[in-house]
Amino acid sequence: MALIENQIAEESDFRLSEATAGDYLALLKPRVMSLVVFTALVGLVVAPGTVNPIIATVAILAIAVGAGASGALNMWYDADIDAVMSRTAKRPIPSDRVTRGEALAFGMILSFLSVMTMGVLVNWLSAALLAFTIFFYAVVYTMWLKRSTPQNIVIGGAAGAFPPMIGWAAATNSIGFESLVLFLIIFLWTPPHFWALALFKSGDYELAGIPMLPNVAGERSTRRHIFGYALLVAPVGVLPFVLGFAGPVYGVVSAVLGALFIWYAWKVLCMPDSDRRMQPAKSLFRFSLIYLAAVFAVLLIESLAVNILAGWGA
Amino acid sequence: MAEEERLTLSDAQKKARRSRSIALGIALAALVIIFYVATIAKFGPALLERSM
């Protein structure tokens, strides 16, 4: 009905919404969601055995919606700090297009729907992992760690590392050692990726009162941390080849990209304190995105190629 | 209820509501199709077999 009673309109917390479907879509953090979908797909495809393509599609959809739901819950809780950071000020809640209550309800309903769909149509192990991931991102990272410790991104990064494990569990109804390796790659990649961003956006985080490493431990310490994690992520990135669930193409690509990751991190380590443009940090941030996408893309393509060749040979 | 006691939505509010309604309709239709197709995929031909 287009007409609303005056009595209701006079209540202080009532307002007529001007939020479009696009605003609700923005609550789902589509860019983060795309990376989650991609890494989950890799976990699902790389896993041994076959899975019905329709069930696989449902699993990926449920993971995408679950990731989006946790994004909406994150925006509900973080609306106050989003409003003061330039990178996030235009999000639907700070720009007053969606209320916090609407975002909370949206996030909770989508969380429930995605987990139940995963459980009923795929399997309950992957549903449990999806539920835990949403909980971990919304509660452990957003509500607890983000505002209380500069190590927020180290532990919180686990939330972003779970999707390939969920994909693997959707395909096999188990947690394989291989999926733990995929988890580890993203888990170790996350801190240097976000700290590179935090270096050239430290003013933003300081303004919002978030204890990111550069404004708590200092830029020099952050640069050392970034380099240390680069030394870890590079060899771990090659592990799928070493352990035999990825082929030689992956081995070569991951080794070269890992070496480049260390080189970019080295440039950040050598960055003088007086450098305010922070070009090396910006370059590392961009490269880290390419690194993760490329490593998982090669793993996916190689696995698909092997499956197709095996199909022809059969 | 008298006409003066009611509010009329502005054009922006009507446009936004229409956008939300269409998205909700598409999402619900997609959910129905997903559950229908996935149920058949999960249970296979056995779903259509029944004892006489």
Write structural notes for this entry:
The complex is a heterodimer of chains A (314) and B (52). Chain A has 314 residues and is mainly alpha-helical. Chain A has 15 helices and one strand, in the order βααααααααααααααα. In chain A, helix 4 (53-77) packs parallel to helix 7 (124-145) and helix 10 packs antiparallel against helix 13 (219-242). Mean pLDDT of chain A is 91; it is low at 6-11. Chain B is 63% helix and 6% strand. In chain B, 4% of the residues are buried. Chain B has one helix spanning 11-43; one strand spanning 6-8. The chains are: A mainly alpha (314), B mainly alpha (52). The A-B interface holds A 2-7, 9, 16-22, 24, 52, 54-55, 58, 61, 113, 117, 121 and B 1, 5-10, 12-17, 19-20, 22-23, 31, 34-35, 37-39, 41-42.
Secondary-structure blueprint of this entry?
The complex is a heterodimer of chains A (314) and B (52).
Chain A: E1 3-5, H1 6-9, H2 21-27, H3 30-46, H4 53-77, H5 79-82, H6 100-121, H7 124-145, H8 152-161, H9 163-172, H10 177-200, H11 202-208, H12 213-216, H13 219-242, H14 248-269, H15 279-313
Helix pairs in contact in A: 3-4, 3-9, 3-15, 4-6, 4-7, 4-9, 6-7, 7-8, 7-9, 8-10, 9-10, 10-11, 10-13, 10-15, 13-14, 14-15
Chain B: E1 6-8, H1 11-43
